[in-house]
Write a structure and sequence with these properties.
The protein is mostly beta strands and 153 residues long. It has two helices and twelve strands. It has one domain: Beta Barrel (Porin). Strands 1-2-3-4-5-6-7-8-9-10-11-12 form a twelve-stranded antiparallel beta barrel. A hairpin with a 2-residue loop joins β8 and β9.
């Protein structure tokens, strides 16, 4: 049952039609807006202009800009993992997602935690301290979306 719930949560960015913002650090100021998420697209800042589109999510893939062209595929999402490009090979795994944590590669090691998500806050590493907060979301989003936006890759 947990796997089905997680799969549903991973698909939220693909089925969401509301607009939400992502802010820098602990801020929720308009001036600190890093991204706007609308439908299946992520835009720079508070814009929803075609020209400011950073990513498009479609059918388990993340594409550069407004494209859904095979050659513009940046990431493939499969089985709680994010892979480089169109690949799903073990060696191309960039992130593993589990229990509100984003791990580097295929690891579940404490030392490989890249991001921690708690509620609407995104933290660097395994910390949840105020000073480690790198982003605040208007509403909860999937780990997939967060890893794509804030992962170090």
């Amino acid at each position: 049952m947990k796997h089905y719930i997680f799969l549903f949560l991973c698909l939220i960015p693909f089925i969401t039609y509301t607009q939400t913002s992502v802010y820098k650090g602990n801020s929720t100021s308009y001036f600190d807006c890093l991204y706007t998420i609308s439908e299946n697209k992520v835009f720079r800042g508070s814009s929803t202009s075609y020209f400011d589109c950073e990513y498009t999510f479609s059918e388990g893939k993340v594409y550069k800009g407004n494209s859904t062209n095979y050659s513009d595929c940046l990431f493939t999402i499969k089985d709680n993992k994010i892979y480089k490009g169109n690949s799903t090979r073990h060696t191309d795994c960039l992130y593993t997602l589990k229990d509100g944590k984003v791990y580097l590669g295929n690891s579940f090691s404490f030392s490989d935690i890249v991001l921690t998500v708690q509620g609407t806050k995104v933290y660097n590493g395994n910390s949840t301290s105020f000073s480690s907060c790198i982003a605040t979301l208007e509403e909860k989003q999937s780990l997939v979306l967060i890893a794509v936006l804030f992962g170090p890759y």
